[in-house]
Structure formats: C-alpha cells, structure tokens
Write a structure and sequence with these properties.
This protein is of the alpha+beta class. It has one domain: Beta Barrel (Catalase HpII,  Chain A, domain 1). It has helices at 40-62, 164-177, 182-201, 207-210, 246-249, 265-273, 326-335, 352-372; strands spanning 9-13, 21-25, 72-83, 101-110, 124-131, 147-153, 224-225, 230-232, 235-243, 279-287, 311-318. The strands form 2 sheets. Strands 3, 4, 5, 6, 7, 8, 9, 10 and 11 form a 9-stranded antiparallel sheet that branches. A two-stranded antiparallel sheet has the order 1-2. Helix 1 runs parallel beside helix 2 and helix 1 (40-62) runs parallel beside helix 8 (352-372). The longest helix is centred in the N-terminal third of the chain and has 23 residues, at 40-62. The relative contact order is 0.19.
Length: 387
C-alpha cells in the first residue's frame, strides 16, 4: 500500500467464523479516492435518457410504467437486521454499530425492464430499504429522510462494465431489444445459458453471456453483491448479502422444477417457502486495503478476497409471512423507489458508476411515478408496509 496512507492495523473475524485472526491495513476514506472521468457528464446524460426511454417504451406497450431495470419483483419481505455484537472497530461504522436493530424491506427481482415469464431467466437483484434511521447525517439529496437503501445483484462480485460510458453500450442493446417478442427473448436466454455452461465445462466463462441468461435456480438461495463501492464511515467497502440459515443454503443452486411452465414460478416458490419458514442472511462487508488492486473508479475489477475477505457484520431475519400480497406489491413496486443515493453520508456511493446512478435512478423513478399517477413514498416506519 502507498505510504501516503495511514497504516491502520485492526483484527477482525474471517468468514470461517473461527477464532483465528488476520491483520489488515484498511485504506482510510477521503474525497480524493474519487476521480471524475473525462466526458462523464455526457455519458450520464445519455445513460439517463436511454433508461427513461426503456420505461417509456414499456409504458406505451403495457399502459403501465415499470422500473427501467429490475421491473419484475418475486418476493417482498418485512425483515429485521441486527448488527452483530462481536465485530471489530473498523466494521463499526455508520448504521453498523454493535447491537443496533433496524426493520427493513427486501425486494427480490430480475434484471429486465419489462415483465417477462420467469423461464426467460436473467440476473437477479435484491434491494434493501432500512427504515427508521434516526439522528444520522444524510447525503444532501436525502436530508430529512430516515431510510438507507442498498442495491445488489447476484452472480459476479464485480460490475459488468468499468464505467458509465461502457455500461451505456449494454443499456443501448437492451433499449434496442425491449420490443422483441417473449419468444425471441426466451431463445436468447436459453442459448446463452447453454453456451455459458459449455464454456465453463472447458474452464472458461463469459460475464457478458451471464448478463443475458441465468440458471433457473431458486432466487432465495442466491448471494448478492453491491459490485460498486460505497463509503463505509472511515473506510471504503463493498457489501454482500449471503444465505445464513440452512434452509436458504439448501436452495443455493437448486433448480426450480418446471419453471418454464409457470409465468411467475420464482414468486410461487418464495410465497410457498415463507408460508412456514424463517430465513436468515448474513450482511457482509469487504473493506478496501489497496486502491490499486481494489479500485474505486473501476467496479469491473473484482476485489481480491485474499487482500480483504467479506466479513459478517449483521444478520437479517425474515419470519414466516405473506411474501407477495397484492397490497404489498402495490406499495413496494409502485410507490417505493430503491436508490443507493437514499443513504447516510457515512454510506455514500463511490465511483463513476455510482455517480451515474444518481441521475439515472431519479429520472426513472420520477417518470414511473408520474406516468402511473402514483405518489412517491419514502417510508418513515415499517408499519407502512402492508401485511
């Protein structure tokens, strides 16, 4: 690590949950870890316009405006997040103070900006809204609110593009094909899954192909990653949500039978599961130890876990409930907005991709709520979430 950074040595538990301890030197946060990219304002503008156009196309076709990405939800949960009592000082930042408890809303989804059969399998997302965060400094655009959002995706631990300009190319491709028939999208989804399996069988693989197809597995068994970094109080971090209870781990990689015969098979599986089951996830944090090998401005670089592992800092518990009522769907899907810039100053998004999201997410949300004639809601209490 550069000698310009303070050598901060701390002990923390590793993911094996043993009593072994490792020593790490975490990079301190400062505004200087971010660097504006040449032409990024233009890239942000074009990306925002493309994502809004996707919403406009879908709205014109279906007479309802959806999110420009992750339009289809599968599971909507009322849960509780509790910060662990044994995390070391570097991990006690922002929300994550020892013993703190928060109600949260969890929204599981899939990537496209239109509502498709689950047999057209694509990457899965998890958005979390922490509710009732009192007496905390918020970023300027979120002053007066009491929520903190985390937006995560499964699959690779790194983002699929190095910056907004490169990501724009992928969004442009989605924009061109949003009006394709469901049948054509099914062919693309199936073909890319088969080709990816073939490449993996000979030791290869393609992040591009994974972006177009995903194995037909149970969404509740997935691990999810922020992929792009955030401020973590005095440090810099990426965040992950991973199955902790045995019943969730048993669903990891488990194929949903006959998914192609059910338009919303992922939802049906989740609803059935939560009729009787309690689920638990670990909230894990990976702190940056080397800005060269763990860059802030290029989220396509996977942060090496031998330099800094993901460390559990909190536990999420979701008890048996109706995981997809009509009233809950209207509230979460049509009234709420999940945005990484709904945040504490201590957890401010970092890097070019996150700066792009500031513009694109707000524009998409504004259009969706206006087109549907729905009031935009930012909850102040978990009691606002319907049962």
């Amino acid at each position: 690590m550069s000698r310009s950074f303070t050598r901060l040595k701390r002990l923390h538990a590793d993911l094996s949950d043993t009593t072994d301890r490792c020593e790490y030197m975490y990079v301190p946060f400062s505004d200087s870890v971010e660097t504006e990219h040449p032409g990024e304002a233009q890239a942000f503008s074009e990306l925002t316009a493309s994502m809004r156009h996707i919403s406009e196309i879908v709205n014109d076709r279906s007479r309802n405006a959806y999110r420009s990405v992750h339009a289809k939800s599968h599971c909507l949960l009322n849960a509780q997040m509790t910060v662990l009592n044994d995390i070391s000082p570097p991990f006690q930042q922002g929300l994550f103070q020892i013993g703190a408890e928060y109600p949260i809303i969890m929204r599981f989804s899939t990537n496209p900006g239109d509502i498709l059969p689950d047999s057209i399998s694509s990457p899965r997302g998890l958005a979390i809204k922490v509710v009732g965060v009192e007496n905390s400094e918020m970023v300027p655009s979120h002053v007066g609110q009491v929520t903190q959002d985390f937006v995560l995706v499964n699959g690779s631990k790194a983002f699929g593009a190095p910056d907004a300009a490169a990501f724009l190319k992928g969004v442009k491709l989605l924009e061109q094909h949003v009006t394709d028939s469901d049948g054509l999208k099914q062919v693309v989804s199936t073909s890319t899954r088969l080709l990816e399996k073939l490449l993996e069988s000979v030791g290869g693989g393609s992040e591009t192909l994974k972006a177009f197809g995903h194995p037909e597995t149970n969404i509740l068994g997935e691990s999810f990653y922020s992929k792009a970094p955030i401020r973590y109080g005095a440090y810099i971090a990426k965040l992950s949500i991973q199955p902790a209870s045995d019943n969730l781990k048993a669903l990891t990689g488990k194929v949903v039978p006959n998914l192609g015969k059910h338009y919303s098979g992922l939802r049906d599986e989740a609803v059935e599961f939560f009729k009787t089951e309690t689920a638990e996830w670990n909230v894990c944090i990976q702190l940056c130890t080397d800005l060269q090998k763990m860059p802030v401005e290029d989220p396509s670089v996977e942060w090496p876990e031998d330099l800094s592992p993901y460390v559990p800092v909190a536990r999420i518990v979701a008890r048996a409930q109706n995981a997809y009522s009509a009233e809950r769907r209207v509230f979460v899907d049509e009234k709420l907005s999940f945005n990484p810039w709904h945040c504490l100053a201590a957890h401010r998004p970092l890097g070019n991709i996150m700066r792009a999201r500031f513009h694109a997410y707000k524009a998409s949300s504004d259009f969706r709520h206006s087109a549907n004639g729905r009031e935009m809601v930012e909850p102040r209490s978990i009691s606002e979430l319907p049962d």
